[in-house]
Give the backbone structure.
Amino acid sequence: MKAAIASLIATLTTITLSFPSEAENLSHLNQLLNTKNCNNCDLSSAGLIHANLAGARLSGANLVNANLSQANLAGADLTGANLTGASLYGANLTGANLTGANLTGTDLRNTYLMNTQLEGVDLDTAYLDGVKGIATDAATPEQFHRWGVRESDRGNYQAAIAHYNRAIATDPEFAPAYLGLGIVYYRTDNQAQAKTHAKIAAKLFEEQENQLGKETSNEFVETMELMSQIEADIEKRERGASNFGKFLGGVGSLLLQLML
């Protein structure tokens, strides 16, 4: 009997303690929507789809798993905010300040990041498909390169090209990005650009004493040239295309290894 009473008391205590927290969360949500001023608020799992939060002050806010899809956050202050797992799909973050924000697993697909401040932000696990206007200093060449490989593997070639070009803009001698561009251009039937970028990659890899990168780039160029020579023979061309397809698959996996 005493055990049952103790269990009941524990349950009632848990329920009682949960009420203020839930009320506080609702209060914070109303505060944000009414004033756009909610620094350090608890807005975890909040539903804010299409919300007009332009210029909102959300420094240090807890926005874990919040849904901010297509919200207007232009000029918003999100410094130090926790956006782990949050959805910002298609959101407008133009001119927003995300300095020091946690973007682990954050969905930033199709977001607008023109003039967005991203100092001290790790974007490596964020989803960036179709992101618009991201600055070249928002990530390292290695990060842009990884995103390029990811988009290329998915068949999102224009997005891959954009990421590779950002890597090169950040570091003009970043050889893996040139090879990545070569592969993407070949897959999009632009052999002239494919050869040009693969040759640049080979030269840079040689200067950087990266033997694997140099050999891979040169083999890529040689295989393209071989493919051009046998185009007149349909049977050989089809057989060569099959073999070259296997080669491309191997190169794709090597791209990430070249930086190790």
Notes: Residues 45 and 100 are 20 Å apart (CA to CA). The chain has two domains: 25-138, 140-260.
